Amino acid sequence: MMAGRSFDHMLGYLYADTGNVSPSGQPFDGLTGSETNLDSNGQPVTVFRIEPATPGAYFMPGVAPGEGYQATNSQLYGNGRGPASAGEPAACQGFVANYADILSRRSGDKSTGSPVAPGAAEGDVMGCFTPEALPVLSALARGYAVCDQWFASAPTETVPNRAFACGLSSAEGSGRFPDFLAQAAEGALPPYTFLEPSWGSLGNNQRPGLDVALGEQLINDVYQALRLVSPLIAPGTVYRAPAVGTPLDHTSILKTVEQRWNLRPLTARDAAAPGFGDVLTLATPRTDDVLSGVTVPVSPDLSAASTAVPVSTAVPVSTAVPGLRSRLDPAYASDTVSRTELVEGEADPLRIRPDVDVLAAVIASARIRPPMSIGLFGDWGAGKSLAGKASASLPARWARSRA
Q: Which fold is adopted by the domain 7-279?
């Protein structure tokens, strides 16, 4: 589950070249190119296409738009209070004006962890990606199914909506991305698997302001590990809930799981939600590869950068930027090594094992009296996180071997 971006922003132009009708003849609620929103001066700003060659394309719109209830109310109703009465339709004319407010408050403020891209303007929030700019996501949407009327469970930011998808649980993790790849290759994945992208300022979660191309790489890697989204979905499907009834939202994921395994609902919310299991309409499984011939995009801003590619400090290199560093640094061997392999000396793709040994020896030395403070310094992508984790586990391993 990726971070929050709007449907129009990511897939609004999916079927624009065919008049917003899918190859199967189903209508698609996409963009026509004439949609507008009022700016901070009350002037209309027209939606525009983000192409691969658009400057800063994969970092558009330049910083994350407003989140939370107040910002969402401003975007939908033009004020932070929300509708004056229940059932009031949203005019949806506050997106540009709210983004202008965000730009004015965050420009020059580096304390938010989400700096504003140079040259960002309020009208940038009306940019929407073309299928050519997001070839992986678009090929999957065309090759399988896309839901053009899927809604957020709550009019607010990422974390509360993710909670609805997970049943308001604590969301405990059981492994990392390399574990998922290994289990997928072995056919040993559990019946239900929920993948989290990498977070932080350099993550691949596609949060606005971050590099969307890294998310394309992650989506591609997940698809290649599984090879099929579902062999029982007809290509070109546009899926919606019935016109009369409860709309699809994140709680529909829970409902589909409950229907699949005959489980009781957790709350009244998922009990009332519609599932989407009926998107599986084929009797004979498909064997085609919808990403055959598709090239994963690489942000020009990143491909021109240093070969020491920044990665998230919270996860291994392979989790944060799968396969990317090897494309930018020919001398780099592999970024799929696990922490255990490094500790056991089976591989050292970042060539940091000597430093790890020295650091671990210092930690384990009986001549060193606590308290002590250790700092790891190096450029982005040098392996500080991996070195720290490996160094922390080596002293315990030595202690066990001497026992």
A: Alkaline Phosphatase, subunit A (3.40.720)
